[in-house]
Amino acid sequence: MHSPNPWQSYRQVATQTAPPGQLVLMLYEGAIRFLERALSGFAYDDPAEFNLTINNNVQRAQDIIRELDASLNMAVGGPFADNMRRLYDYLDRRLMESNLKKQDGGIREVIKHLAVLRDAWCGLLQGQGSVPAQVLKEQLAA
Q1: Is residue 19's pLDDT more than 50?
Q2: What is the pLDDT of residues 88-99, one digit of tens each?
Q3: Domain residue spans in the chain?
Q4: Considering the domain 36-141 in this protein, what is its CATH number?
Q5: pTM of this prediction exceeds 0.85
Q6: In degrees rounded to 5, what are phi and psi of residue 60?
Q7: pLDDT band at residue 131, thresholds of 50, 70 and 90?
Q8: Which of 59, 88, 92, 137 sits 20 to 30 Å CA-CA off 107?
């Protein structure tokens, strides 16, 4: 019997206790991390490793983007929520295309868009003072 991974335990508690705004930030960061791992798959010579690394990590990032999309409150969000839904749909389609064709351009594009969203969200949380800047820095460094 093995002991639980302390890092996984920490992440589980952090996601269960984080305020909603911080959860969104964590989702953006997670999607970016999965896409960076997908990009690392392009360096593999072994076709199985190449395909599995890209496919699995792109799909995980797509799951996160779909979760962000599903969490939009369309009744309250108005035009902003409509625009975010269209953006998430576009990002999902770019990743699907990149995964099917095994091309890195779409993955890199999505990382750039997600980084802008993450940085804007981080700035918003800092501006509200709802999450101390040090906590946000630690979260982004994890």
Answers
A1: yes
A2: 999 999 999 999
A3: 36-141
A4: 1.20.120
A5: no
A6: -65, -40
A7: low
A8: 137
